[in-house]
Amino acid sequence: MLFLQFALLVVLLPGGDSKDDFQEPTSFRVIYSSSFYNPSRVQALGSAWLGELQTHGWENHTGSFIFLRPWSKGNFSSEELTEIEKLFRTFNIEFNQIFHNHASQWQLAYPFQVQLAMGCELHIGEASVGFARIAYQGSDLISIQNNSWLPSPKGGSRAQQVSGRFNLNKVFLETWHRLLTDTCPRFLLGLLDAGKADLQRQARPEAWLSTGPSPAPGHLMLVCHVSSFYPKPIWVMWMRGKKEQQGTQQSDILPNADGTWYLRKSLDVEAIEADGLSCRVRHSSLEDQDIILYWEHRSSTGWIFLAVIVPLVLLTVLAFWLRKRWTRCEPPSNLISLE
């Protein structure tokens, strides 16, 4: 039955009719982190994400989900969500207890941190892909494959011991398998359906050009700013005609306060080579109408004006000042000599 629902992805995926440049797998993942301060104190934090949008939080004291969006429950019933909460509360207790009990054996020095990432990805026309990975101090330790935990090649003997311990509980392995292969894909499809209006929102980008600090004498740092766009996938490039310019540097894509995004693309060029360059922006909200901003009016006309007009003005002012001073210093022609 689950595979019949994948036909809905064409309709439900955000930006499903956009260009190939913007298509990416749709994923739902849970991030869980336990900080072990000493043998009697541990603090757990949890969150859940639809792609790069946080949809859930985790109340550590009560073991309850925090629904951050009006549609964060998807199409699951209250009974199903309560059952999943119970599973996570049980997991939270057992997970932390295992690492406390084996801290000495696995050479885990307090304080230390253990992270878990689990979830699933949906691909159009393909089966869903479930994943679960556990890391120690940010380094991969074990991951689940084919209904069993496998040690990371870089995890050494510690990874071998941890995977062996986690594989002892066959009932829990079956629960993991069901969560990753059935529960997670169904919940993800429900989120996409319930949040469709929000997820398919489109905001057109705004773009402008500027210069950054000069990287070297005779060079310009051209900067293309793009802001206020949603969803996040976007393509921005400095071009000369139809040729992409090598050496273009992109900043991180940063969030705006209204939920839209901002980025900038920079290009270091010789000043005499700047004429003819343009910044091109493609985004799903623009359909086939790319934004193209040309630099030549700013570079050739602007710099010629500054290079020619400004020196002429300075020379005129200087000549006027020298003439006025010379006139003041010259003696009057009708002055009678006393000699």
From TrEMBL:
Protein's cellular compartments: Cell membrane; Endosome membrane
Entries under SUPFAM superfamilies matching the protein: Immunoglobulin, MHC antigen-recognition domain
Record keywords: Endosome, Glycoprotein, Immunity, Immunoglobulin domain, Membrane, Signal, Transmembrane, Transmembrane helix
GO biological process: one example: immune system process
Record membrane topology: Single-pass type I membrane protein
CC terms in the record's Gene Ontology section: endosome membrane; plasma membrane
Domain Ig-like, residue spans: 185-292
Main location: membrane
A Pfam family hit: MHC_I_3
Transmembrane residue ranges: 302-322
PROSITE patterns referenced in this protein's UniProt entry, alphabetically: IG_LIKE
InterPro entries named among the record's database cross-references: Ig-like_dom, Ig-like_dom_sf, Ig-like_fold, Ig_C1-set, MHC_class-I_related, MHC_I-like_Ag-recog, MHC_I-like_Ag-recog_sf, MHC_I/II-like_Ag-recog
First and last residue of the signal peptide: 1-18
Name the UniProt record assigns to this protein: CD1 protein
Annotated source species: Equus caballus (Horse)
Chain's gene name: CD1a6
